Amino acid sequence: MERKAGILLHISSLPSDFGIGDLGPVAYRFVNLLAESGQSLWQVLPLSPTEVEHGNSPYYSSSLFAGNPLFISPELLYEEGLLDRQTLESLRVEPSDRVDYERVYALKAHMLEKALENFKESQEFYLFCQEQAYWLEDYVRFNLIKKKLKRPWWEWKQLPELSEREVLREKVVQFLFFKQWKALRTYANSKGVSLVGDLPIYPAPDSVDVWADREIFKLREDGLPEVVAGVPPDYFSKTGQLWGNPVYRWDRLKERGFDWWLLRIRHALELFDLVRLDHFRGFCAFYQVPYGEKTAERGWWEKAEGYSLFETIREEFPHMPFIAEDLGTIDQEVHSLRDHFGLPGMKVLAFAFFDKNSEHLPHNHTYNSVVYTTTHDNMPIRGWFFEELNEWQRARVLDYLGYTPESISHALVRLAYMSVAKYCVIAMQDLLELGQEARMNTPAKPEGNWEWKLREMPNRELWEWVGFVCKLYGRSYNYP
Question: pTM to 2 decimals?
Answer without folding.
Answer: 0.96
